[in-house]
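PT: before anyone asks, these are the final sequences, not the draft ones from last week. 557 residues across everything. Please model them as a single complex and drop the result in this thread when it's through.
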Amino acid sequence: MTGSAPLGGFAAVLEDVKRTRSKKEKVRIFSDYLSGIGAGDAETAARLATGRSSQRGSRDEAQVGYSTLLEVLREVTGAGREKVSGAYLKHGDLGEVAEELLGERREQPLFSEPLTLDDLESTFLRLRSAKGKGSGATRKGLVKSLFLRASPLEGKYVVKVLTGEMRTGLVAGLLEEAVARAYSVPKEVVARAHMLVGDPGLLAAAAARKELGALKMTPFRPVNFMLAEPMATPDEIAAHFEKEVYAEYKYDGVRAQAHKLGGEVRIYSRRLEEITSSFPEVAATLRRVEGNVILDGEIVPYSDGHPLPFQLLQRRLRRLEDFEEAARKAPVTFFAFDLLYHGEALTDAPLKERKRILEGAFRGVGTLAHSEPVKEASEIRAAFRRSRDLGYEGLVLKDPASLYTMGKRGSGWVKLKEELDTIDAVIVAAEYGNGKRAGVISDYTFAVRDGDALKTIGKAYSGLSDAEIAEMTAKMKELTVESHGHWMRVSPSVVVEVAFDSVQRSERHDSGYALRFPRIKRVRADKSASEIDTLERVSAIFSKQRLKLEGPPRGSR
Ligand code: AMP
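LR: through. Structure below.
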């Protein structure tokens, strides 16, 4: 095949994938499409279909803010603000808004030279490399050039990729199935390769070239983190493992995967975004580790042997001040607790072995996470108290025999936190405050996930510092899709961890519940809207709390 595949065909395929509810059909449609295009296009298509405009872990993202997209859409289509906000209200999806508006524009583009996947890829590359002064205008220009050439359906998917909100239901597992089917490779082989390279594009290209077997874990290609399963009590945990396990302090910072290759270090966040430039001193320390490695650990605000408030990290993540100032105000330490790669992948070695190698490579260079052996519930309880007394969040208990299961909440790792529940929710609307807070956007309505929908469960006014509110004000303005006076609907993107006293039934919110006395504990910049808590969890907390207050339902004893 010569030339790159047309974008129109790709958009039509995604539309078909989206339309069918059957997972099998989604797989069939996308795999048929993959089999008909070359390996290079398959790489782009697989990446775009999962809502990514660049390879996973790449330093720069091509993301374009909602307000820029809306502005360019208005320019290209001549639609007014009213019209745009009406369309958003109708669809609740910016991609669909673009489709509608582009469909109504007076002058339709001439389709003499249809956009291809390569065109999109090269525009995204230019978007990613537009930096510094004047880059805002360049980015706008690039997006505009796409909208000017795109058909309504193409425009819809350009927007969907740029906002990362595909909503086609082609989740990672189904994409793997499609790749397996398209290139006649066993599903397990594809899933395994996907774990090792992380990126769906590299996966599809390797499968198309029959090179899956050659894919290896490599520094600078971040992989999904292993996650811990929550358990409520030391007794439950002792009964779960029934053997001696490691009890590690649960550090309250940001999860970090540190890669070292030759003399270079790159650090990735839980979302697999590169955050090296936020923590140059961590990178400098890790450069001294011998050999090529991938470490797993937590970057913690820390000084003189004590953890500092988590909030200090937020400014560093957003690089609000120059490095020296940031490092002085918020010194950090990287606590390493796992080793995924040491010249070769170690994820299939038991934790005990990984720790042995980690200690050899890391002792004397950096700081290892505190770890002690425990077995009985009483020992777990004592270690938990010690951790809390030292200012940590609790414990993560780990089976020495467990393998590193990427991206899974395996039962090999279990976490024990303070009893108080918090909920991760996404902000969907915001309002200007009153009195002292009249000029700033300080009231936030937040929602949890219910299947594909978002359902509101409360409104929080407290918890953030003035500086954080100032940052939020800018962020909310950027995310606004519709405003009425002092109220605005925002694109669901900012995740907050909300503490509360209890869950109540409520008519006011469409979830049917409301959090009582909600306060924002922190902004979870490390989480995306797809990772927030579900309505199911809220309702489980509601039932559990009723059980606590009222005792078990009658007749159950
Ligand atoms: P949570 O954020 O409540 O789901 O708890 C899991 C998180 O705890 C991980 O993603 C890490 O960021 C963090 N964590 C802190 N200390 C450790 C540790 N020793 N082992 C594993 N994870 C840890």
